[in-house]
């Protein structure tokens, strides 16, 4: 049980760092862009959504690895096919 908590805390920390780095880099880049203000905002929203997509995949891969690990309780849910499963990504 303590291992599961430790792994989840590590994954949460990793995702927070990914989110921070995306936002920090876009904050540095925004003033240098030579495009109209409205398009800068759209670009910033696109980068933020890209960060969220990367974070979803970090959680999906970590859940998949925990599911496949020996001696851990398996995740419960809908699993369609071998490999990176949709339920690890979307649920």
Protein architecture, described:
The chain is mostly helical and 91 residues long. The chain has one domain. The protein is 71% helix and 0% strand. It contains 3 helices and no strands. The two termini are 22 Å apart.
Q: Provide the residue-averaged pLDDT.
A: 82
| Helical content band | over 70%
Between the first and last Cα atoms, what is the distance in angstroms? 22 Å
Low-confidence stretches: none
Globally, the shape reads elongated
The tally of strands reads: 0
**Number of helix segments?**
3
Could you spell the SSE succession in H and E letters? HHH
Q: Radius of gyration, Cα only, in angstroms?
A: 17 Å
Give a short synopsis of this structure.
Helix content is 71%, strand content 0%. The protein is mainly α.
Task: Using brief descriptors, characterize the structure shown.
71% helix, elongated, 91 residues
What's the helix and strand layout?
Elements: H1 2-29, H2 37-68, H3 86-90
